[in-house]
């Protein structure tokens, strides 16, 4: 019996997807394992102990909250505070636009691939640390390793048709963290708006600026026509080499815009080039997110 | 025409276009190269940026130079460049172009033709009227000058003839030439009889230019057969350095395909005009040779056709079955050998079968009265197929009753009892002389020496057709030689002996001449002029000027005197002519010919082909232009960074072409496998199970042979008797199945020649078990049907002293899967005697060609892949014992096949020991 053609096509697509998933997952876990020791080990000492600290009771404390056993050994009353039980939620956003599919050389992965890898590796680290991880726009934050599979599936999803992506203006949980991975080459207004809105809700976060070295260096010359990845934008020049300096200036301007936005909102900006090893970026990302976790 | 150094230009005006090159340069620089399209996300940052300069990047200078080169080459190509332009003689006088067009010019004909075409073109440019004449194909009178393009159309029709032009005809034609014209003579490089006179005629009328090629023609004289060696002589003009020429002999192979049968080389010494090659060939090969040819020479002169002078007839002599040793001069064979051995291939054998196998032209029976029925039938077939049977009478024929009451098909006439003796001691008459040969007799014209007398003969019965069949008779009118046609052949009886017992005929030269006339022997030399002139000759094959052999059997008959005069013409080309007296090859070359080089007086300007020839360079320049454009294409791709994918595609294409599968059929596989080691073979019956068992059986036997003897057979091979060649196998195991198809005729022919050639077939009907119960089995009947057409000698059950019982193991029974029943082998001669002191008879014949039995040996020998027996035999230990005996029989059998009857030679051991002095 042969399955119906539609079914067969669906299945083959599903299988193709499934092939990529474990690879990405395995890659991400491998990457995460290279980052885990050193930073996270300290956090886990005394894990399971809910105790946080004793503090002197104030007038506003309820009587029921006074720890009498501790208070009996001293003259003042102590209130036993436990560590905040609710885990931190981290929401990721990975740009799926066509522009992220760019790779300046065939030895380098596309920006999208790198961003997906970093996002998933970060998720692995966070989930191991017991945090809740979600993915904008559709996947709410949950904890536990079971979250990894839907995360990977969403990350591997088809690219958007749009040339450039912008972070969605979704309702982030208040006081949670967010990580945006994108090339931020699209309209800067959208980024500013999304970050501003998030910051209004007390959300802190990191902007990971993923760029291909070709986008940094602009190594073109001669008569050229540049088109965006989906073909929506087009620019023709007679001498591409002439444009290099001005292009770089504009890129620096864009970076400066991101930095100032971060400064205004308390976010952090990281720049990552696809020719650099992903572990470096992940390390930096992890430290920033981890530090953010501690600040709450 | 504009000439710059060695190059001329036909249309120099076009060169002005070269001035346009700088313009092109400027244009190429001005027009920007095609834009490169980049997909680049950073374009969002570029939007709105303006170019600071309106001028694009420049095309690299070397790319510009390449393009300029391409265009320059194109311009040059179209301006008609010519290398070594010939100086042009400006004249408006008519031009007579003469070519010898003989066999000697055939070899370089393309050059001559090209030169003629050039001359015609030139004349056309000048507007000179031209006449173009081939001396071997002359009009009777000069036909006037015409426009050059008229001749250009007819140029291909002018071809070299296979002979040299006739001087008288040329002289007559030269008389009709008009007064003033120039001549251009394309000489063949040889001095012909007409040349000096014609040159004089031409020089009185105007300037003469001659053209010669640097290669000197070679010619081949007809081959001569001397003492069995073919002598071929090549000729050339004198004054040339040492040279080696390759001579090949071409003819039909047995399959009727024309191919080179032999080749050799002849070396001219420095300055020598002749070089001889001696070729020793087997008569059969020699008889097939149709022509000799000098390798690399394309001319009629370099071909020597062969005729009867090279042929030898094959004469088979049935030698007596009893030898009369010591009396050579009395033996009839002595005279026949003396008469025939110099002029014919003699084959002698006591077996009619053997003689006929050599496919002789003539079979001679000397005083043989009666042949066996089979032999008579074979002989009759031979005669009817065009053979000739020559019989001599003698005492035995006279005493027999052959052809007494009715005519024997192998006798021309009926014979009376007893024969007669004239002029003997007890008779009245004198020995008889021969009567002059009658008109129409094959012996007509032969002179009869006086000393030839006949003293005894066998007498013919006076039948109505006796006089028609008599071709020679004695003075008293009694027939001496009678002849009868039968089918395509003939039977000739000489009514006296082939020795001097009954007549003096064999002692005379007449005997030899008569044999020659009867076409028993052939002329040792070519026919002389008188003989040629007396007959009419039908052309069979003709040579064209290039030495190609063409069929001429539809050409009209030629008178013999023309042939004798060697008066070559278009109707009498060199070739093979045939008449009643045989075939005659008329060759261009002759044994006494002399080739002379043509010399030209100083007043004649001579052109040679080594003069640098005009060469049009347009194609060369076009090629350069094309190449430059191709390089430009690649370079343009490279500049824009798109070369790599194209290069990869091109490389992939090349790789694919290289990796194309090489299909080569391997037809000799069977032969190579079968001859690389000893291979036991079995006949494929078509029954898969039987074939499988047989294969396993031979494999098992091979295993045992490997273990116990020095015979190490390879994997057994199943042969299809309809297709495969059998000669490679010493032994063929043939299991008979009920429904085995009867082999085809060709398969039978192969099987019979296999048996005659020493092969052995073992037939196994595999039915010994059943055959004990019933009288005959289907397999046995099938075997009878199959074996009917095989050449199987008389058989007998294996006798106790047969060599099969002792080749390796001593055994008396030959069990296979079954026991009992006899095994049959070739019967020993009935008169074999028991060897002294030995338990067996003195049998030194060959290996038996067949063994017939029904014991299903293969099943007893059969082993599976792991080497274990496939079938159970008998019961327990007894059965295993039987299998062991079966293997022993197999070992004996193969040893017998491979070593023959050497064990029988043991009968000589006592004698050998005695000789050693023990």
3D structure, described in words:
The complex is a heterodimer of chains A (296) and B (918). With 296 residues, chain A is an alpha/beta fold. Chain A folds into two domains: 51-82, no CATH class; 86-295, von Willebrand factor, type A domain (Rossmann fold, 3-Layer(aba) Sandwich), CATH 3.40.50.410. Helix content of chain A is 44%, strand content 18%. Mean pLDDT of chain A is 77; it is low at 1-5 and 37-49. Chain B is 29% helix and 20% strand. Chain B is built from 26 helices and 41 strands. Chain B has four domains: 95-216 and 597-613, von Willebrand factor, type A domain (Rossmann fold, 3-Layer(aba) Sandwich); 221-312 and 524-594, no CATH class; 319-517, 3-Layer(aba) Sandwich (Rossmann fold), CATH 3.40.50.880; 669-909, Domain of unknown function DUF4159 (Rossmann fold, 3-Layer(aba) Sandwich), CATH 3.40.50.12140. Chain B has 918 residues and is of the alpha/beta class. Chain A binds chain B through residues 98-100, 102, 163-164, 183, 185-186, 212, 214-215, 218, 220-229, 233-239, 241-243, 246-247, 250-251, 254, and chain B through 32-47, 49, 51-57, 640.
